[in-house]
Design goal:
- The protein has six helices and 15 strands.
- The protein is α/β, with parallel strands linked by helices.
- The chain has three domains: 84 residues, ACT domain (Alpha-Beta Plaits); 30 residues, no CATH class; 106 residues, Pectate Lyase C-like, CATH 2.160.20.70.
- The strands form three sheets. The chain has a six-stranded mixed beta sheet, with no helix packed on it. The chain has a five-stranded mixed beta sheet with strand order 6-8-10-12-13, with no helix packed on it.
- Strand 12 and strand 13 form a beta hairpin.
- Helix 1 packs parallel to helix 3.
- The longest helix has 15 residues.
- The termini are far apart.
Length: 238
């Protein structure tokens, strides 16, 4: 048996209230966006408020009811919250974001040497950014193309009933008539670029709009869809 440390992309949803109907709504939005993609997908619940009196067994039930799997709970947890999780046998996860922030602080400090951990984090981040998945041809109805931890380039049309998903940006050198979900794991800097915008649904980092909610001025034109202040913003590609 060999033990390895691997990195995985997980959907993270932050809980800011004891009202679990809000969690249910967020999970339902994800499920509606891409039912096949999020079917039985692992999700991490993030808690940043130590004062919240949360029923983690009920949280797990809500997650399962929406066809997700609770991978664990992260955040700035109180001792009571940690004890509650342990009693429910739910994993407590450490956020990699905190590690990255610490590494950055070390790099900014004028010291003579850097730790191996800082170098490893930087190299992994650059390598992930550089990767691109390229699909040549039309994406037909019923097909789903997913680019994990990278950008997706479609050299052709995306038909109605098709889904293209990427953890990074999506570039479509053709018409977008199906669904496009960029920043699928929460990257709010991601964008969708296409030569003809006529989608069933377009989404950036979980914020989505259906075709009838998009501004008519951009339909049928070369467009960019991005996210600003948690709102989808459209612009001309040319």
């Amino acid at each position: 048996m060999t033990l390895k440390s691997l990195n995985f992309s997980l959907l993270v949803i932050t809980i800011e209230s004891e009202d679990l109907s809000i969690l249910a709504d967020e999970l339902n939005k994800k499920r509606i966006m891409a039912p096949d993609f999020f079917q039985h997908a692992p999700v991490v619940v993030n808690v940043e408020n130590q004062a919240l009196n949360l029923d983690f067994s009920q949280i797990q039930k809500v997650v399962l009811e929406h066809n997700f799997i609770l991978a664990g709970v992260s955040g700035d947890l109180s001792e009571a919250q940690k004890n509650n999780l342990q009693s429910q046998q739910i994993a407590i996860l450490r956020s990699s974001k905190r590690q990255v922030k610490k590494a950055t602080a070390v790099k900014d400090t004028p010291v003579e040497t850097e730790s191996p951990e800082v170098k490893t984090e930087s190299a992994t981040f650059i390598a992930n950014e550089a990767k691109t998945k390229i699909y040549k041809g039309r994406v037909r109805s019923g097909q789903q193309i997913y680019a994990k931890e990278c950008d997706l380039v479609i050299n052709g049309d995306v038909s109605a009933g098709a889904e293209v998903i990427a953890d990074g940006n999506i570039h479509i050198y053709g018409a977008l008539r199906g669904r496009a979900l960029a920043g699928a794991m929460g990257d709010q800097s991601a964008s969708v670029f296409c030569q003809l915008l006529a989608p069933e649904l377009v989404s950036i980092a979980g914020v989505y709009k259906l075709s009838d909610a998009l501004p008519g001025d951009y339909i049928g034109k070369s467009s960019i869809v991005s996210l600003e202040n948690e709102q989808l913003v459209l612009d001309n590609l040319n």
